[in-house]
Write a structure and sequence with these properties.
- The complex is a heterodimer of chains A (about 300) and B (about 400).
- Chain A has about 300 residues and is mainly alpha-helical.
- Chain A has a single domain, classed as ABC transporter involved in vitamin B12 uptake, BtuC (Orthogonal Bundle).
- Chain A contains 11 helices and 4 strands; from the N terminus they run ααααβββααααβααα.
- Chain A has a two-stranded antiparallel ribbon. Chain A has a two-stranded antiparallel ribbon with strand order 2-3.
- In chain A, helix 6 crosses helix 8.
- The model of chain A has no long low-confidence stretch (mean pLDDT about 85).
- A two-stranded antiparallel sheet of chain B has the order 1-6.
- The longest helix of chain B is centred in the C-terminal third of the chain and has 27 residues.
- The two termini of chain B are about 20 Å apart.
- Classes of the chains: A mainly alpha (about 300), B mainly alpha (about 400).
- Chains A and B meet through helix 4, helix 9 and helix 11 of A and helix 8, helix 9, helix 14 and helix 16 of B.
- Chain A: This is Branched-chain amino acid ABC transporter permease.
- Chain A: It is found in: Cell membrane.
């Protein structure tokens, strides 16, 4: 195999890894603060992507405004829509159900995801079909021998990496992060020391959901196409990444995201037959890893959480 | 124990079986009406009366007395229900569509009984129910097309293959808990579904043909009439589906009411306490997972044979969720609730054709509302009165 193709695969893997990591970080945040899995996450991603597309279309791609302004409008709309959707699901379902059995919460949030998905399908004109996403980033290619890569892809990748880094910084180095970690560790004591429990939880939901929305926008810009049910598989992959890495652990989520993307990419390169088996291989890897590391690669410090 | 606040007239009190026949008869009459109903208003009317009935049963003395009566004569009630179900088959004997729906409900409910054994009794989550169901159907297709095995053995094979494939994920499932175990089954379900979709030997996205059921020389697909009476060829399938459900029901009830059931309850409720009492957590969870998957596989095999084909479409996460919703909505561990919820979830969308476009949305909202405001399901599982059984000197 020549170098260019290999580099292309590696770049693809990195891109997928960042996207998966961003989704997984959301799952980890939610699990951290509330010990619940919010399974509507993938559909929040789709909601964000469609909100971006809607805002961009509304402003008008050919309105004469500089592309960066249009992009910013799309970005803001997407992030806002994602955050709002996440907070609504958190406020109406997850918070009231947090003492219910885990299966109930899973089912309820999965159904919330279905509602979001159906609203997109029914609410967007011709929503059942894939939608083209406008190219808003500068065109052009960077060439290294036989390996060529779009400038837009590089920007997307850099932004994604930066955002994951920023989230990690926020959680580990700011007052909000401190509050999040306090609530995650001991909700009652955190409340006693003056932390507004509900606000921190909903704030976490907003951050995690906005991250997912950004991942949706990234996907739209990278593949130039979005789909009302794009969130279903991505949600499961993000969940898988978070669990393999170790729930409630941001580094674990990031590691899991890259691992899943790595398994997919490796399967695409290495398998002699069709790359259609890449998901089969990746999920098999997930099952084996969970069998080997029952509480994730980076387990929680408090071991027993019955 | 007869409650003191009852409002029944003395005659009815003296013949509780009469009450049960009345109740079950009423339920099946409503079911027949729902299955037959063509216009939306009557469907909504049935639904409203259903909700009202739950309110009455829950909120009034008569209702509580009614459930207590039914519970005390459970075996008799079950028998009446079986007769009621078979009566529905006779009633709709030449109505293909209604019978198809009835059989679908019966087979899905049978699969859900397996799922109940796993989740409600042993506490093992299984988000791959539809995958095991599809594995059963595919096994029926392969064994039916390529071997001359009698079809009863084919169905047993469906269960065995589903059980054995389930073993592949058993170890990770046993080593993990909660969300980690949930992920293992989700990943397994997606793996199976993608595998079925891309594997050309199994027909890829088009799937495979499944031969019709053939029991003791009776070819189910060729049944047209008995004497002068025209029959739908779904009639034998409906009878078989109902009997399969009844079999699964009896099997799981026997398990529930034996010491196995108590062990399962103990393992689910408190693993530490259970292991202190010498119960092997892994053993009982594995038992429930295996038996549950076998039941799901057999139901899937019968479903494939009835439909005549199988493709990967029904094996996705969404379909597993439908199965899980059925048992959660019906009330975890309540086997009768399972069939009630199966009717609501499988039949209602078919009947609400006018809102076809919105049915998934409505379905999702409905499930959310029930989970939010009635978290233990439509009909919660009743607590077992072990002390009563023991005081009678019987084995529970």
């Amino acid at each position: 195999m020549d170098f260019g193709l290999l580099a292309q695969h590696i770049f693809n893997g990195l891109m997928l890894g960042v996207i998966y990591a961003m989704i997984a970080v959301g799952f980890s945040l939610f699990f951290g603060v509330l010990d619940v899995i919010k399974f509507s996450h993938g559909d929040v991603l789709a909601t964000g992507a469609f909100a971006s597309l809607g805002a961009v279309t509304l402003v008008g791609v050919n309105s004469g405004l500089p592309a960066i302004v249009i992009l910013l409008v799309g970005l803001l709309a997407g992030l806002a829509a994602g955050a709002i959707a996440g907070v609504i699901v958190g406020r109406t379902l997850v918070l009231p159900l947090r003492h219910a059995p885990a299966v109930n919460v899973l089912l309820a949030t999965l159904m919330a995801g279905t509602v979001l998905r159906e609203i997109i399908r029914l609410g967007v004109p011709n929503g059942g079909n894939p939608k083209p996403f406008p190219a808003l980033l500068p065109a052009g290619n960077i060439q290294f021998g036989s390996f060529s890569i779009g400038i837009d892809s590089v920007i997307i990748l850099a932004c994604g990496l930066a955002l994951v880094g920023i989230t990690h910084f926020v959680v580990t180095h700011t007052r909000l992060g401190l509050a999040i970690r306090a609530v995650a560790q001991e909700p009652d004591v955190a409340q006693l020391s003056g932390i507004d429990f509900q606000r921190v939880v909903l704030g976490t939901f907003a951050i995690g959901s906005a991250l997912a929305a950004f991942a949706g926008l990234m996907l739209g810009l990278y593949y130039r196409e979005i789909n009302f049910n794009m969130g279903v598989l991505l949600g499961v992959i993000g969940f898988a990444a978070a669990v393999v890495g170790g729930l409630g652990n941001l580094l674990g989520a990031i590691l899991g995201g890259f691992l899943f993307a790595g398994a997919q990419t490796l399967a695409t390169i290495a398998l002699p037959f069709s790359s259609a088996y890449k998901d089969v291989v990746a999920f098999a890897v997930v099952i084996v890893l969970i069998g080997l590391f029952p509480t994730g690669l980076i387990p929680e410090k408090s071991s027993e959480r019955v | 124990m007869p409650s003191t606040e009852t409002a029944w007239p003395p005659l009815v009190r003296r013949f509780p079986r009469l009450v049960i026949v009345g109740v079950v008869g009423l339920v099946f009459a409503a079911l027949a009406f729902l299955l037959h109903a063509e216009n939306q208003i009557s469907v909504v009317a049935v639904l409203v009366s259903f909700v009202a009935l739950i309110g009455v049963v829950d909120g009034t003395a008569i209702g509580r007395d009614l459930t207590a009566t039914c519970r005390r004569h459970a075996g008799f009630g079950n028998g009446v229900a079986l007769i009621g179900a078979l009566a529905l088959v006779v009633l709709f004997r030449d109505d293909h569509y209604t019978l198809l729906m009835m059989t679908t409900v019966a087979l899905y409910a049978a699969a859900c009984i397996g799922l109940n054994l796993q989740l409600a009794f042993a506490g093992v989550v299984n988000f791959a129910g539809a995958a095991f169901f599809a594995i059963g159907s595919y096994t029926a297709a392969i064994l039916g097309n390529h071997t001359a095995l009698p079809h009863l053995l084919v169905l047993a094979g469906c269960g065995i293959v589903a059980g054995v494939l389930g073993l592949c994920v058993l170890l990770p499932v046993l080593r993990t808990r909660g969300h980690y175990a949930a992920l293992v089954t989700i990943a397994f379900g997606l793996l199976i579904r993608t595998f079925l979709e891309v594997n050309d030997l199994l027909g890829g996205p088009q799937g495979l043909k499944v031969p019709g059921l053939d029991l003791f020389g009776l070819q189910f697909n060729n049944v047209r009439e008995i004497g002068p009476i025209d029959l739908s060829f779904y009639v034998p399938y409906a009878v078989f589906g109902i009997l399969l459900f009844a079999g699964a029901f009896v099997l799981v009830r026997l398990i529930e009411n034996s010491w196995i059931g108590i062990s399962l309850d103990a393992v689910r409720a408190d693993e530490v306490a259970a292991s202190v009492f010498g119960l092997s957590i892994a053993y009982w969870k594995a038992f429930a997972f295996l038996v549950g998957n076998m039941l799901i596989g057999v139901a899937g095999g019968a479903y494939g044979m009835m439909n005549g084909f199988i493709n990967p479409n029904g094996a996705g996460l969404g379909d597993s969720l439908i199965l899980l919703s059925i048992i959660v909505l019906g009330g975890l561990g309540n086997l009768w609730g399972t069939i009630g919820a199966a009717v609501v979830i499988l039949v209602l969308p078919e009947k609400l054709q006018a809102i076809q476009e919105y049915r998934l949305l409505i379905f999702a909202i409905l499930v959310m509302l029930i989970l939010r405001f009635r978290p233990s399901g439509i009909m919660p599982r009743s607590l077992r009165m072990l002390s009563r059984v023991l005081s009678r000197g019987e084995r529970a």
